[in-house]
Amino acid sequence: MAETCTVVHFSREPSLARIDTIKGSDSPGKISESYHSFGTFYVCCIVLSIFTYLTDLVLAVTLLYHYSNQGYGLYFALTLTFVLLPAICMSTLSLRWYIIDHDDPSVGRASLVHWMIRILFLLLQISPLLRYIETLVYGIRSKLAGNAEIDSQQTILYRRMLDEDTNSSLLRLFHCFLHCAPQAVMQLVFLLSFVMYPDRNYINLNVSIFQAWTVFTSVTSIAWSLTSYHRSVRFARDDKDKIKWIGLLVAFCWQLMSALSRILALSLLAAILPTWMGVICALHWGVMSIWLAIGQHQTAACSSRCEELLLSTALGLAYVLAFISPRDGPTRYVYLVYYLVCFMENTGALVVWCVTNNSTSNPLLYYGAAGSQVLSFVLAIAFLIIYYKYCHPSLSKQTKIPNSHSGYIENDKPCYSKTSYNVRTSS
């Protein structure tokens, strides 16, 4: 009698879970590996994530060194705050996930040496780096197991790789909103102050170069963190088609232009009226949190209403910079509302900038800053349309789920829980 097995492909939505019955001659590991792929494209994405993460840290430490040597106490304190706070939050989350994995028998127990390495990275406050390294290690091991035709081990290692990839991408989102976004706004405001008021001697030219590089790398890191997260979610979900390199490139350009326009608008307002910038961000946070709590609370990530409110509050803070959908469903009108609000806020910031400044004193800065903000916002909308019209990966025919209203569900939505493993039972 031939051996058969049942492979349960878990999804973030219970309605999208898939159960396959496979004969003994088939290989669930090979099916998983053929449906997913760990190759040059995957490795390049992880390496780019590591590079952007380390670049952010190196530039932040460099600025701290210069601020300390030159006696800029306020700049030093603000920069240090938004270096340590995100690092502590990420280390705490990463440690919690390690403990959850330790108690999960399907994951397996880590060795003492492995725990010592984890503790070292946690103490150094660079937990995402270890997650990225573990992603590469599990991916290479799954590839070697596949070449050796050890199918069961290949499947387990591949799912572990997807788990670590999703975890690292989620940690980078915290790094993106708690570190990169504040650093980009702060350093750009410091840089604008140096250009607008050179007679006050806020900072010297050498430090301003590092500030400019910090702004550039922070905006780039924000765009790549958001893009990489959507990529990892699609790889982790069996019911989703995987995003191609051209789609990833267009999505990155969309997120880059969107983040740049938002950072420019907030920085221009903060350079003139820093208090009002804080008030507007707080109002934006509150309105978005209430909107999410009332109308966007149907998410599989939360088991109680309290968790939904906490998630709404966290996403509301993220929405100050970028949009992340909390659940599957149509997003056309949601994007329309979000970008309309951002457009009005950005326009208000530009009006304050143009009215307060004099174009004759520094026309390059006056027109360059305003023009860059408008152009980046227009390009963000253009890349958004191009992505969803031409580059968005649609669901495969095998995993399209009928919907009583629209026919099929085709969405690119993130998840907020850790990747589940495929369960294999023999009979």
TrEMBL record:
Stretches that traverse the bilayer: 40-65, 72-100, 112-133, 170-197, 203-224, 245-265, 271-294, 306-324, 336-355, 364-388
GO biological process, alphabetically ordered: apoptotic process involved in development; engulfment of apoptotic cell; phosphatidylserine exposure on apoptotic cell surface
Assigned GO CC terms: plasma membrane
Keyword annotations of the record: Cell membrane, Membrane, Transmembrane, Transmembrane helix
Membrane topology value: Multi-pass membrane protein
Subcellular location: Cell membrane; Membrane
First and last residue of the signal peptide: none
Top-level taxon of origin: Eukaryota
Main localization, broad class: membrane
PANTHER family for this protein: XK-RELATED PROTEIN
Family: Belongs to the XK family.
UniProt protein name: XK-related protein
